[in-house]
Amino acid sequence: MTDPADYSIPEAALALREGRLTARQLVTAALDRIAQRNDRLHAFTHLNPDALAEADRADAMLAAGAAPPLCGIPVAVKDLIDVGGLPATSGSAVLSGRIAAADADAVAQLRAQGAVILGKLATYEFAMVGPDLNLPDPPARNPWNLNHITGGSSSGSASAVAGGLVRLALGTDTGGSIRSPSAYCGCVGLKPSYDRVSRAGAFPLSPALDHTGPLAATVEEAALALDAMTAAPNDWRPASARLDRGAEGLRIGYARDWFAQDLQASPALIRAMDDAAASFSMLGASITPVSLPDYGMFEAAGSVILHAEALAEHLSLIRDHLPRYGRPVLQCLAFGTAVDAEDVQRARMAQACLTQDMLAAMAPFDLVITATTLTPALPFSAFDGEKAVWTPMRTIPFNVTGQPVLSVPVGFDGDLPLGMQIIGRRGDEDLICAAGNAFERATDHSVQRPPL
User: Largest CB tally within 10 Å, which of 24, 181, 328, 348?
Assistant: First the structure.
């Protein structure tokens, strides 16, 4: 008999509606799974003591009929995002003891749907560089190999989903923090269009680049979660509206040069991406190489904006709590002191120009595919020193442009997963999810499970 903790969200939702399963049973199964595995994964930092009571309320909603799709479904939340009554430390000793007074908007949206909040998940300190082995909570581990990182900063979110602790988790993404951990851990990450999901109640890193979105076991589950979290549903097409569309007739630009010419790119990644392009072709899509604007320009503009805004967010905390900050975060924040208002103005002008250049490059296509990261997850041993270690990604351009991006598993390098990005125009979450769902169904990458 299948453990309810392994039911997909659609499977669980159907069983709940038909009375074959209760929300209390589903949440109990998830809590049991966390008890079995979290000591190895360190994905959860705090469990919700009211989770079973929330499950009982969901059961009451189900009994009354017309329950929303996520009613009774367990969800976990990155510790950068507030859950009323639970610790909200952003992974830092600076905020140790802080309890959230209210739910973040995204959490409130899910709770209104009857979703059950299981608890809080590990994050890199204040969503910056990591992992830091000197923080109050140990860093989350990659379920595929516990000696490797998950990527960040939504580290616990990816570990919890990939490790089978929960099917759905919330994360944030300022430069790739939903997508890179999803790629490193072999799950699905969906960074929505800028402002589709409210950021209120999530500790800001860089308000101009911050996004809140789901990490999930499958594309369908990520799409359903995004629909539930969307701040103004009537202003956006549902991400799940065209999941069965397939890839037939799609015009796909393949941004191969963006990663394959980089010396850091894993040969296994290049092969996996070429195979993915071939899979889309066999599904009836047309695949054409596309040259996107220079990645380095996006990284430069995004870095200036990010570091300037991050420093502004932290100035008052630094004045009062400097000794409690981790060294890697202080090093990151120090970059903000090296840019001035003129630098930021130029970066914002570049942001506008680069966004137009990206949209112009994509004009002949329905969507574009490229790699999420250039390598599989690094080992923890690479982070033993005090020098910051940067993991090579291809993610920050779409924080600069605010476009929606779906990261899906695309293969393996040895025993570690790799990821592919599917990029659309603003509001095209339904199209990228349709393409991702078609790819997922045509391959076996998403059904692979780590050897826990």
Answer: 181
- Residue 78 is a catalytic residue: yes
Q: Catalytic pick from 90, 92, 153, 446?
A: 153
Q: Tell me which DSSP letter residue 322 carries.
A: G
Q: What is the pTM of this model?
A: 0.97
Catalytic residue among 177, 240, 407, 446: 177
Pick from 57, 38, 8, 23: which is nearest to 243 by CA?
Answer: 8
Inform me whether the pLDDT recorded for 135 exceeds 90: no
Cα(176)–Cα(148) distance, integer angstroms: 18
Separation of alpha carbons 426 and 402, rounded Å: 7
What per-residue string of b and e applies to 144-161 under the rule 16 or more CB within 10 Å gives b? bbeebbbbbbbbbbbbbb
> And the tokens for 377?
């997850």
Of 130, 418, 50, 64, give the one whose Cα is nearest residue 270: 418
Q: Which residues contact residue 385 at a Cβ distance below 8 angstroms, ignoring those fewer than 6 apart?
A: none
pLDDT, position 388: 59
Quick one: which H or E segment has residue 378? none
Distances (CA, A) of 448 to 117, 187, 327: 26, 10, 37
| pLDDT tens, residue by residue, 40-69 | 999 999 999 999 999 999 999 999 997 899
Reduce the DSSP state of residue 175 to 3 states and report it. Answer: coil
Could you tell me the sign of the dihedral formed by the alpha carbons of 45, 50, 54, 59, in that order?
positive
- Among 26-35, 122-131, 338-347, the least confident range: 122-131
Mean pLDDT of the chain: 96
Q: Token pair 């008999």 is at which residue? A: 1
What's the chain's length in residues?
A: 452
Residue 333's identity, in one-letter code, is: L
Q: Is 209 exposed, middle or buried (0-12, 13-18, 19+ CB in 10 A)?
A: buried
Average pLDDT over residues 15-39: 98
Is residue 205 within 8 Å of residue 175, measured between CB atoms? no
Q: What is the average pLDDT across 373-377?
A: 98
Tell me the angle at which helices 219-229 and 429-442 cross, rounded to the nearest 10 degrees: 160
Is 120 known to be catalytic? no
Q: What is the pLDDT of residues 379-426, one digit of tens each?
A: 999 887 655 567 899 999 999 999 999 999 999 999 999 999 999 999
Three-class SS state of 245? coil
Average pLDDT on 162-169 reads 98
Query: Active site includes 180?
Result: no
Domains of the chain: 4-297+341-447 (3.90.1300.10)
